[in-house]
Design a protein that fits this description.
With about 475 residues, the protein is an alpha+beta fold. It is built from nine helices and 25 strands. The strands form seven sheets. A four-stranded antiparallel sheet has the order 3-25-24-23. The chain has a four-stranded antiparallel sheet with strand order 4-5-6-7, with no helix packed on it. Strands 8-9-10-11 form a four-stranded antiparallel sheet, with no helix packed on it. Helix 5 runs antiparallel to helix 6, helix 6 packs antiparallel against helix 7 and helix 7 runs antiparallel to helix 8.
């Protein structure tokens, strides 16, 4: 209890200290959440702002929507308001601009994907097509609305985001199509939908259907499932997608069959009442690094929520503001092989580069080892994390898992308790109880035998005493 009180005190202190201060005076902070009691736990900074990219040539960025980092670490920006694609080196130096100068009449492009050869695939949203460019910016081909009866005939094709999966199919997010991602092959043929959301079940809706008029039922039948806001793919081919306007499963990880493999009915992000009403997270983009660490960008809170490979919260940072480390309206996020996070701010027309701290690097290293089942190897970096912050819950859980594998049950129980992991604690306690009984089996049998004999003797003596009393009374 004292440890938890010590954890909460810094949060209260900084809240009171800066409650009436202007936005520029608020320090950068990072925190995570207690998995058992669900309150914020302040942690050391996980990222610092290394640089801010603003110079993109004669024209500054204008309402840019998407950011992509290719295999060489080069940056590509879908500069929506300027109807162009901007190419930058990792330091932010302008390398090329693709648009009117090449005769490419983009109309508000909102998405960009670059393959391993440097070829670009632009979601030309306003023109209703995907444009394929070679590495030099020359137009190769176009992908338009595919012919299929499964797509609504009267709906405009408005591709907003695009990626190419391991099979070579284009996976397209169409802002007018709620049926999931549209798969298109190299011949512009429709290959089906993948990763569709569903209208959630509601007892209220069921009751309305039972009592509603035919006209009301017709309106209910038009209800559409919550839509994905973006899509990204990791090195193994898994597709990640944030879903908006829903109160659970806002982050999904899809396999090749389009099945979400994350734990269902999970809430991601945080609810907020800062605006005077309840606000749910609004994740607009996801970036996954080479270790499988997930960075989810919440446009509602202007924060970055970082999760491990199993969807467990590692850290939260960022926020709403006009200084480094905060955002006006973040629209896209990417991560490079050095672990640096690039965040595109649509309203401030810049890209902030976040550099991981030693604390963050240790968490990622330990999480990767832990996820791959190398619990004992993860023990060293987890201990280093605890040397920096002894209250970090996932580090305690990682240590507990390693101790569990080593059959050090009592120590594992203590670490699971610090981590707030009830399931892990119960498992360790069960193993400890089994091991205790096994190691003390002889004594247990002896105690049970002596107890049984003592009980038998006591019962026998009580019967004799009762008989004696009965004889004295003449019964």
């Amino acid at each position: 209890m004292l440890r938890r009180a010590a954890v909460c005190f810094p949060v209260l202190f900084f809240t009171l200290l800066f409650a009436g201060a202007p936005a520029f005076a608020v320090p950068q902070i990072s925190y995570t959440r207690d998995p058992l009691h669900d309150y914020r736990i302040p942690i050391p900074l996980v990222y610092t702002v290394g640089s801010v990219i603003m110079d993109t040539g004669p024209k500054p960025l204008n309402k840019a929507s998407d950011l992509f980092i290719d295999a060489k670490g080069l940056l590509y920006v879908a500069d929506t308001g300027n109807n162009r694609i901007v190419k930058l080196d990792p330091g932010g130096r302008l390398l090329a601009v693709f648009g009117d100068d090449q005769g490419l009449k983009f109309n508000a492009p909102e998405g960009i994907f670059v393959d391993e050869y440097g070829d670009m695939f632009v979601a030309d949203t306003g023109n209703g097509k995907i444009v394929h460019l070679d590495a030099g910016g020359a137009k190769v081909e176009e992908f338009v609305r595919p012919k299929t009866t499964l797509m609504k005939a009267n709906a405009n094709f408005s591709p907003s985001k695009v990626i190419i999966d391991k099979r070579g199919y284009l996976n397209v997010l169409d802002r007018n199509d709620p049926n999931g991602f549209i798969m298109i092959d190299g011949g512009n043929q429709f290959r089906g939908y993948i990763a569709a959301n569903h209208v959630p079940f509601s007892w209220q809706q069921l009751l309305i259907r039972l009592l509603a008029t035919p006209e009301q039922k017709e309106q209910l039948s038009k209800a559409v499932p919550p839509q994905h806001a973006n899509l990204t793919m990791d090195s193994e081919g898994y597709i990640y997608a944030p879903t908006v306007l829903t109160d659970k499963d806002q982050i999904k990880k899809f396999n090749a069959l389009g099945t979400n493999i994350f734990k269902k009915d999970t809430f991601y992000g945080e609810k907020s009442i800062d605006s005077g009403s309840l606000t749910l997270p609004y994740f607009v983009d996801i970036a996954v690094d080479q270790y499988g660490i997930i960075n989810a960008l919440d446009a509602a809170s202007r924060k970055i929520y970082q999760y491990n490979q199993e969807g467990q919260l590692l850290a939260v940072f960022g926020g709403h503001g006009n200084v480094k480390g905060t955002f006006e309206y973040p629209s896209s996020i990417e991560v490079d092989r050095q672990g640096r996070i690039f965040v595109l701010d649509r309203d401030r027309n810049n890209i902030q580069v976040f550099v991981p701290t030693r604390f963050s690097e240790l968490i990622h290293q330990a999480s990767a080892l832990y996820f791959n089942g190398r619990y004992e190897e993860a023990l060293k970096p987890w201990h280093e994390v605890l040397q920096i912050d002894e209250n970090y819950p996932l580090a305690h859980r990682g240590v507990a898992k390693a101790l569990y594998k080593q059959e050090r049950w009592r120590e594992a129980m203590a670490e699971f308790k610090l981590a707030g992991d009830q399931e892990g604690y119960s498992a360790a306690f069960g193993q400890y109880r089994r091991a205790y009984v096994k190691s003390h089996f002889g004594w247990v049998v002896l105690v049970i035998g002596v107890s049984a004999y003592a009980l038998y003797a006591a019962v026998k003596w009580l019967r004799r005493l009762a008989d004696a009393i009965a004889r004295r009374l003449g019964y």
